[in-house]
C-alpha cells in the first residue's frame, strides 16, 4: 500500500470523497433501521428517494465526466466528432423524459417507471465497462453505442418520475414540501460530486472499465435502495389505474424498442440535428398557435414563456461545454498538479451545494424589499455571467501566454461564474414555466422547456465541434478564439435581454395571477438544471 505521505492531490480528493460517501451511507443506514415513520421531521420515503437518486446521479455524472476522454483516448474520435457525439448524447437524455413521463402518468405510475428506468440504466452503465481493444474499427464500439442508448432511455423513465414521487409524499398544503425538495436536491448534487470524483479517478488512473464499472455498481446500489424502500413510499407513485400484465409488458416493450431507435440515432448526429430543428419549430409553433386562441393576459404570458424558452439553447450551449471542450481543455492546457481532469467536473455540483441556499435567501430578501429582479432580468444576468465565465478563462490563458499552462485558478473562476449563472436561470425558468402556463397547457409548456434544454445541449456539441477547427483536433488558441467570440456574443444578448426585460415582465401580468396547484411542482434542479423550486420574483 502506498504511503499516505506520498499521495498526490487526486488521491487525497478521492479519499475525502470516499469518507463523505461513508458518512452519507451511515446516515442512510440509521434512517433505514429506525422504526419511526419519520426522520428529522420528514417521512422515511423522502430519504429513500434521496439515496436512490444520489446513487443514480453518482453513476450518471461519473460516466459523463469520463465520456469525452473515452471518446478521444479509447475510441480515437477526433475532438470535433467527440464533442458532437457528447452533445447528441446529452440532448437525447433531455428528450426521452417526455416518453417516460407520459407512460408513467398514463399507465405505469412513477414507481414502476423509475424501477424500469433504473434497470435500463444499470444495464447500460455495466455495458460501458466493456472496453474491447479500442479504436473505431473495433466491433466492440457497437456495445458502446448500445450502452449509451440504454442510459438515455433509462434516464427518460427515471429522471421524469422520481422527483414527482417526492411531492406525492406530502399534501399540497404541507409546509414541509419546499424543505423536502431542498433535501432531495442535495442528494442529486452530492451524488454528482462524489460520483464524478470516484468514477473519474478510477477511469483515468486505473482503467476505463473500472471507472464505468463503479458507475454501474452505483446504479445497482440505487436500485436496491429503491426496491427495499418500497414500503416507506406509502403508496406514492402507484399506477393511476390497475394495469393488465400484458399491457404492462407491452409498455416495457416500447421502452426496449426505444433503446433500438436511440442506438441508431446516437450514431448519426446529423439526423438528430434535423429532428431537433423540425420538432422544435413544430412544438413552439403549436404553443404560439394555442396562445392566439387565448384572451389578452394569458396570451401575453405565453409570449413571455416563449421568450424565456428561446434563451435556453444559448445558455446551455455554452454551459454544457463543461463536459466537452472544457474538459479537454483542462486535460491538455491547464496546470492541474497531477489531478485527473475529470475530477474538475465536481466543481459545479460542489458550488451548487454551497451557493444555492444563498441564492434562495437572496431572492427572498430582495423580494421583501421590492427589489428582486424579474424572471427575464435574471435570465439576462445569467447570460452576462455565462459570457463572462468564457472571457475570464480566455483572459487568464492569454495573460500567462499562449505557450504556458493555464493556472488552475481560472478553471475554478470559470465554473464559479457558470454556476452562479445557472442559479439565476434554471430554477427561475422552472418556476416561471409553472407560474405562467395556463393549467391546460402546463405539461406541454414544461415539455417545451426541457426540449429547448435538449436543443441547447446539441448546440453545445456544435460549439465543441467548432473548437476542433478545420483539422478536427483542438488547439489552445482555437478554443480560446471560439470561447472569446461566444463569450462576447452572449454578453451582447444578455444586455439586450436586460433592456427588453421590463416589456417581457409586463407580459407576465404578475398582478393578476391567481393561486392554483402548480403543475410541475415536483421539477427539481441538478447540475445542469440547478435549483430548489424557488417561487420566483414578486410583483413590483
Describe this protein's structure.
The protein is mostly helical and 540 residues long. The protein has a domain at 315-540: MFS general substrate transporter like domains (Growth Hormone, Chain: A, Up-down Bundle). It contains 19 helices and 4 strands. The strands form 2 sheets. A two-stranded antiparallel sheet has the order 1-2. Strand 1 and strand 2 (42-43) form a beta hairpin. Residues 517-525 and 527-540 have low confidence and may be disordered.
Short description:
By secondary structure, this protein is mostly helical. Helix content is 72%, strand content 1%.
List the helices and strands and how they pair.
Layout: H1 9-33, E1 38-39, E2 42-43, H2 44-74, H3 79-95, H4 97-108, H5 110-128, H6 141-159, H7 162-168, H8 177-205, H9 208-228, H10 245-265, H11 269-291, H12 296-310, H13 312-319, H14 325-333, E3 334-335, H15 347-368, H16 375-400, E4 406-407, H17 409-436, H18 442-466, H19 476-508
Parallel strand pairs: 3-4
Antiparallel strand pairs: 1-2
Helix pairs in contact: 1-2, 1-8, 2-3, 2-7, 2-8, 2-9, 3-6, 3-18, 4-5, 4-6, 5-6, 5-9, 6-10, 8-9, 8-15, 11-12, 11-18, 12-17, 12-19, 13-16, 13-18, 15-17, 16-17, 16-19, 17-18
